[in-house]
């Protein structure tokens, strides 16, 4: 999820349409966006993370134009590659740039920018860096105004830090590589990505004018503003596929500002750059019908994919070939195209339907046992408590419990263990309600997790506590006996070592020959330590041990 | 005229008829009948209402001993006077010693003895001051002894004796009103037609047949119930039970699963890439130490899942690329969603049409605040079988929501790594507007194929706590784990909530 601010005037200008709030909200909704609020000339919208191409006004405009059938199919700048009058820039990779091997680049010209569109482009880069780049590890983006460069013959190579010299963006003097890392904000933030590298990645002209030092900073020489008409986009990173997709994504979303683009051929000895700007998927129309339950013909599916800004053509009577731009990083499988068809058809035009299948439902036995236990204890006059299953390991240790599952990275120390018992939750509850009318009788029925001999087991426990001026072993035993009767369980008692209960006034509950719980009076020391001023007697009993899929709890 | 009287009222009437012409105080009647004075007072009130008795209030002055008075056997000057009876006179010092009185009491005894003229002090003549017996005046002493004997005595507050004892702080005098009651002239209880009036029906009245003669008083109902100690089921747990009922009625079978889970079942088998933020230690709880689950990962499935992540395997997908690390998949966490339960179920039973659901705890690293609990419930459902489509998923989400009282629902395309197409169902609430309520989708082939599932599987996972909050009008999620017993006792039954949502 990413929440972005979209300039609505810019969006309207890009689309050439007047859009009222309702219409815009509807459009965003259909592209997985939820409007969070409206500001002066802008809308704040939460978008899903699978469609980075929609994270700016120009990307939304491209998608909306398709949905509204103002433009169909692949965007024009991806289809044709007109030659630039001044010639196409060249990019050569000199050797293997160990710290950041892959690079891809686009040349975009004919731009008509203003303050709003420059803000949109810069904001887009920042969002991609923030949401998808994993702290610029996966990719780093540079966008450069090339008008001040002496030539467009570019070279990407590793340069020893002390041989580097350029004026970074928004700085007023030249620095070497080390200084850039030490003396600039971005340098300090991302220095760890170049830690240990003997040479830093540098993109420059053959004449030695530096455009950027990826993934840290661009040069001040190529900064972009409203007067910029042609830019060079570069993306670097450790994975070829990611680098190529992101480069196309940035270039295309800039090209929406009335421009043309050219993909640079990256001359290098180590890898084969992807030449085509699209991947072609084969889509079976029967699959579309099967997934969506809609009676769609091949032509209709092709038309809907065109609305989704993809090119689809018939391969044979039942299959389509679909060209998908590299920037559509969400398309991994033909089924992703099926979702595009559904979105263009309109989710809310799909009529909900129930299948004809007849099936008989039923409760898990654990639910039925839990119901019986809850019914019994509430009928006996106990109030049900609902607690978190995360508890404090400190409290568990204090009460003498063992064998809980600990959490390595708790958010708070109070919730750092999975409960192996329901009693701490009940005692905490009793403590907080001890001034309420008495007798105070409470219970909880819930699952607990325990580690026995290194192996995790999960069970359903029932526990009850009674608190009054007098709360004794014989009282709690009476309730326990009625409870056992309700559950049809026969029980006997044996010795008990539970530290939280008073010696001589405690017992282990044995059901079916195995120890299944405990009963007794909470010791005065424990009560005092918990700040409870009244006697408390408790019992806890395992009432069900489930068998889970693929798991057998012993 | 029929007169309705309670047992006590009848007894008071009978008692008074035995003492004609002699008004009885309420105190006397109460003592004679062995009941509280207040009971007699209210009985007399009723009898007077019928015009059967007459009442007269008398105010009297009554003397009682003070604490100081109660500490005395006799007045101290009487003690000294007693010593003089035999010898007629004693040296002052010897009188003090023999009286056994303390310094202060002895000084008061001498002062009051002299004042009352019981004895006088004679100075000089060798041997110091002597106490010499004088005339005997018993009136003050007798009043003291009378009050001491009876505990309470009607007195004339203006008398000299009362004045003396009050001045010395030995007695107090207060006004006491007493009601005297007697049968009204001409009333003959034996000639009255009396019906027994009781406050409650008793077992004895019922079996003896006496109920036929009884009249129960009118009871005024007022909405002011007293505290009744009672048991009660928790509203939130009951709400979840109602939801289960809805799902079972829609033909779903319930399942449960482990809270402790391998990342493999929680993430990898769901095609969540290994570098996904949800798998970060900022988001999910890692289990500390070494804990075994007592299971083995099915080799074939593990290989297929790994291949699918790497290059799509035979699923037709491009996969995520890069490496897939079994070490990451084997890590133990507290499950972050119940979808792990669904996936395990699919791996065990890949074939056949089915509908399953589970409602249980899940864990995510979150601060506890008004909208987040680190431990929350999810309502998860899967439907598998030939011919299932997105239409049917919408159909289930709609039917389920309808059964929970929702009237309007709309569908937004959504994104989850393990479903495609994905949807987020929004439901309409009169006060809150459109609410994001039910995310779901169709499991991706990258999820189903490695598990050996060959048919579509519809899935959803609803944050059911949110529904509960709407039902109960809760504005803070922490209220579902309230630590206040009165909040639990005060909640309407969940079934009623469903009834008039």
TrEMBL record, chain A:
Q: Where in the cell is it found?
A: Cytoplasm
Q: Which domain of life is it from?
A: Archaea
A molecular function (GO) held by this record is:
RNA binding
The B5 domain covers: 276-352
Q: Which cofactor does it need?
A: Mg(2+)
Recorded E.C. number(s)?
Answer: 6.1.1.20
Q: Which SUPFAM superfamilies match?
A: Class II aaRS and biotin synthetases (SSF55681), Putative DNA-binding domain (SSF46955)
The entry's keywords? Aminoacyl-tRNA synthetase, ATP-binding, Cytoplasm, Ligase, Magnesium, Metal-binding, Nucleotide-binding, Protein biosynthesis
Which example biological process does GO assign this protein? phenylalanyl-tRNA aminoacylation
**Could you tell me what this protein is called?**
phenylalanine--tRNA ligase
Which organism does this sequence originate in?
Candidatus Marsarchaeota G2 archaeon ECH_B_2
UniProtKB/TrEMBL annotation, chain B:
Its principal location? Answer: cytoplasm
GO MF entry, a single one: ATP binding
Name of the protein described by the UniProt record:
phenylalanine--tRNA ligase
Chain ranges of the Aminoacyl-transfer RNA synthetases class-II family profile domain: 354-482
GO biological process: what's one of them?
phenylalanyl-tRNA aminoacylation
Protein family per UniProt: Belongs to the class-II aminoacyl-tRNA synthetase family. Phe-tRNA synthetase alpha subunit type 2 subfamily.
Q: Which UniProt keywords apply?
A: Aminoacyl-tRNA synthetase, ATP-binding, Cytoplasm, Ligase, Magnesium, Metal-binding, Nucleotide-binding, Protein biosynthesis
- Determine the domain of life of the protein's source: Archaea
**Its EC number(s):** 6.1.1.20
Cellular-component GO terms for this entry: cytoplasm
Species for this entry: Candidatus Marsarchaeota G2 archaeon ECH_B_2
**Where found, per UniProt?**
Cytoplasm
CDD domains, per the entry:
PheRS_alpha_core (cd00496)
Q: Which InterPro entries match?
A: aa-tRNA-synth_II, aa-tRNA-synth_II/BPL/LPL, Phe-tRNA-synth_IIc_asu, Phenylalanyl-tRNA_Synthase, Tscrpt_reg_IclR_N, WH-like_DNA-bd_sf, WH_DNA-bd_sf
